[in-house]
Amino acid sequence: MSLVHSLFGSVSASGSAATGGWAYFFGNGSITGWGRGDNIDKMDSGTDTLTTLSSVMATGRYQASGNGNAGVAAYCNCGDTGSGNSNSTEKISFTSDSISTLGSTNPGGSYYGGGNGTNQGVKAYYMGGNKYPITATVFDMPFATETWGTLSNSLTYSPLNFPTSSDNGVAAYAAGTYTGSMTNVDKMPFATETPASLSDSLSQGGGYMAGGYGQYGVTGSVFINSYSNQYEFNISFTTDAVTDGTWSITNRKYAVGCSISDTAGYISGGTSFGGGAATWTNTIQKNVFPAMTNSVLSATLSEANLSATSATNELALA
């Protein structure tokens, strides 16, 4: 939910390694009138300019989950289509910006509000979410086969509408949940694919789907919203300590997050505290790494929305 979770992360490029990349904003969740948007917007991180692709999603999805595999493709998984939940995955090719639907679907059925994890070049993960009831199951998709499976190990709790963050090659993190104001933070090492609860937790639970991302090898960042407050947290990838963050993000319920490895994190869409459809936004906020300085870009999404999806193509990893 995305969110990314959406893909989240940062690495430090060395030598002449390419840096930056492109952010993709897609699925577009709910748009004015509570419909489902299908536009795909692409942003160059070097110029912060945005274009809308001629390709569109086959199915607009609310509270879908997104993964990005650098140099290859972005994936949009599950979500609420407006006429029911989906178990399908759409793929945006990074080489052609074209879109297709995978032959493999989520083996657990149709979900919305799940989180993601991404191990670049290896696997995408779909964690938790709602299939009535809410689940703790973790599904995995090797990028080499693009075939979804079910892990034998589940999260330690059942989260819905929650932020996630991934430390590439190391672990994925699931933080909090909309339901029950739980403050759990689960870590799933990619080597074992066995989630466990951290000894540290969020200082505030509940809220509404927001977003997260991370600087690979350094820090994961997640945020949640209530009707009147926003809460931001940092997860140390080296110590697994959880601390309160101060990123100065403009209040955005149901926004989503993604990041480009050595560049910045992006927060898109959403609505203000207590706001309805009239306050849905098309803005994109940017937090530059490593200082996390915040700004609102002049470029805007083609559709104001909430609970859309995003992912990134990272040159440093491609």
Topology, element by element:
Elements: E1 21-26, E2 30-31, E3 35-36, E4 41-44, E5 49-52, E6 65-69, E7 73-77, E8 89-93, E9 99-101, E10 115-119, E11 123-127, E12 138-142, E13 149-150, E14 164-167, E15 171-175, E16 185-189, E17 196-197, E18 208-215, E19 219-225, E20 230-236, E21 242-244, E22 256-260, E23 264-268, E24 284-288, E25 293-296, E26 309-314
Antiparallel strand pairs: 1-4, 1-26, 2-3, 4-5, 6-7, 7-8, 8-9, 10-11, 11-12, 12-13, 14-15, 15-16, 16-17, 18-19, 19-20, 20-21, 22-23, 23-24, 24-25
Rounded to the nearest angstrom, the radius of gyration is 17 Å
Give the count of helical stretches. Answer: 0
Subunit organisation of the chains: single chain
How far is the first residue's CA from the last residue's CA?
24 Å
Strand percentage lies at 35-45%
**Structural class given helices, strands, pairing?**
mainly beta
Q: Any idea what the CATH architecture is?
A: 6 Propeller
User: What is the strand arrangement across the widest sheet?
Assistant: 5-4-1-26
**H-E string:** EEEEEEEEEEEEEEEEEEEEEEEEEE
How much helix is in the residues? under 10%
CATH topology: Neuraminidase
Name the average pLDDT. 89
Tell me, what's the shape?
globular
CATH class: Mainly Beta
CATH superfamily: Kelch-type beta propeller
**How many domain units?**
1
